[in-house]
Amino acid sequence: MLHDPALATTSDEELACRAQRGCADSFDCLLRRFQAPVLQFLRHRGAAVDAEDLTQETFLRAYENLHRYRPRWSFSAWLFTIARRASINHHRRARPAIERSDVDAIPSPEAEPLDAMIAAEGRRRLWELAADTLSEEQTTALWLYYVEDMPGRGIALVLGRSVASVKVMLFRARKRLLPLLAELDGERPPEKLPEKKSLRQIEKVGTTHA
């Protein structure tokens, strides 16, 4: 529980600087802000059964390396860089994971409303299609851009690339995905690439930060 209500309106970067100086409440506030987004990001990068452990590992690494953080950096980009590296390292050393289809076949303890199930299916198909069609970097770039609202500069930091190369990567990823999405929907591929808002409507992400 936060002791200082003012922390709730403090920027991520300022909270990180305060945490560097030993303010435990500041790091706790960052944990509350980013725990759900990081968890969801990691779930879409591999087996869901590993995501919670990797989320804990991400925040542990962030805490241990706070002295390396610089306030000129976007904290969210810095944190997602750690999460991505933790995920990559984990999958390099992990044993064969449970097939996604096997996980999906496990019955839910409570039936979801039909519209929620349809929305969930749409999100699953989209990101599975991205994972099967695009490179890891392209999928990560799309996720950070459309789900996390991260600007190109932040994505460049996460991927270790230039802003210009990220723009090209996003353009090529959209160009590759849009005809495939249209085929799934039984529609003709659009003649023009949509703006960010339009692609969001196609994705039906519906994600909010905790």
Please explain how this structure is put together.
The protein has 210 residues and is mainly α. The chain folds into 2 domains: 7-94, Rna Polymerase Sigma Factor, Chain: A; 113-204, Winged helix-like DNA-binding domain superfamily/Winged helix DNA-binding domain (Arc Repressor Mutant, subunit A, Orthogonal Bundle). It has helices spanning 12-20, 24-43, 48-64, 75-93, 100-105, 114-133, 136-146, 152-159, 163-184, 196-203.
Q: Spell out the helices and strands N to C.
A: HHHHHHHHHH
Question: How many β-strands, per DSSP?
Answer: 0
Distance between the termini: 15 Å
Strand content: under 5%
**Architecture (CATH level 2) name of the largest domain:** Orthogonal Bundle
Largest sheet composition? none
What's the CATH H-level superfamily name of the largest domain? Winged helix-like DNA-binding domain superfamily/Winged helix DNA-binding domain
H/I helix tally: 10
Question: Mind sketching the topology for me?
Answer:
Blueprint: H1 12-20, H2 24-43, H3 48-64, H4 75-93, H5 100-105, H6 114-133, H7 136-146, H8 152-159, H9 163-184, H10 196-203
Helix pairs in contact: 1-2, 2-3, 2-4, 3-4, 4-8, 6-9, 7-9, 8-9
Looking at this protein, list some descriptive labels:
single chain; 210 residues; mainly alpha; Arc Repressor Mutant, subunit A; 2 domains
Could you give a quick summary of the protein structure above?
67% of the residues lie in helices and 0% in strands. The chain is mainly alpha-helical. Helix 1 (12-20) packs across helix 2 and helix 8 packs across helix 9 (163-184).
